[in-house]
Amino acid sequence: MRSVDMTHVLRWRPPAAACGTALLYSVQFQGEFELMHLKWLNAPECQLSPHTRCDLTFDLGSDSDYNLRVRAQCGSELSAWSDLRAPFNRRDTVLTAPEMSVAAVGDALQVTFAKLPLTAVVRVTVWKSGDELQAVVYTMPAEQAVLHVAALQEGVVYCVRAQTVLDARIHSGSTGAECVTIAGRPDATWKRPTAVSVTVVVMACFLFSVFWSVVHCRPRTCQSYLHKEPLPHSLDPDWDIQIQVSPEQAELYEPIHVSPAP
């Protein structure tokens, strides 16, 4: 049995005796439940198969010990069952470092994995370049496949390392560190210059239109648009003020005759 990254493949050698027809092989397995009831189960994908290998990844679905056996068939003749020397437990699988790719997407890291064991988790370590003691560890299930780490500092180099973990004692080696520079949000790089450029263009067009209007404005047209509003009558300086005095308010006087001195 060879098990790597939770892929379990049983292999065997053909029998020494010659066979006049094609040799066909059948595989059976027995877990704890089947062992208690003295039963064997057929591996569905490995019955009367011409191959000398059998993928049992989806058949051995628990962490229990499994007994395995195979036999050959030549025409109508069957060989004896050949048993695996020792029971197999999928916890004995060999984990390899995951296949990882790292990319900067805006202000985030996108860490993508391939060919992960289905029942494993991935431990991802992220740190600023030169400051690994302040690293942050993220854990994600293998079926997720992609990890996003958002809200990172623009212009800073971040490094990533990962390993596959089954339990406290079964883990792969770590990948090499992959480092990328965070460029920032895509819209942040053009919004400010674009806004400034648009403002300058609009103001230039407005000032040009005003200047052109003043220079090329005909007198009659300008007077029609820039005519003076007449002053209200109350503010007109050429008043003809006439104060009517009632007879009662008129000053009373008597004529005085002055004689010359002798």
Give an account of the 3D structure:
This protein is α+β, with helices and mostly antiparallel strands. Helices cover 15% and strands 30% of the residues. The chain is built from three helices and 15 strands. Strands 3, 4, 6, 7 and 8 form a five-stranded antiparallel β-sheet that branches. It has a four-stranded antiparallel β-sheet with strand order 12-11-14-15, with no helix packed on it. The protein has a three-stranded antiparallel β-sheet with strand order 1-2-5, with no helix packed on it. A hairpin with a 2-residue loop joins strand 1 and strand 2.
How does the overall form come out from the CA principal axes? rod-shaped
State the secondary-structure class: alpha+beta
H/I helix tally: 3
What percent of the residues sit in helical stretches (DSSP H or I)?
A: 10-25%
Oligomer: single chain
Order of helices and strands: EEEHEEEEEEEEEEEEHH
Q: How far is the first residue's CA from the last residue's CA?
A: 167 Å
Radius of gyration: 49 Å
β-strand percent reads 25-35%
Low-confidence parts lasting 5 or more residues at pLDDT below 50? none
Describe the biggest sheet?
5 strands, antiparallel
DSSP strand count: 15
**Mean pLDDT, nearest integer?**
84
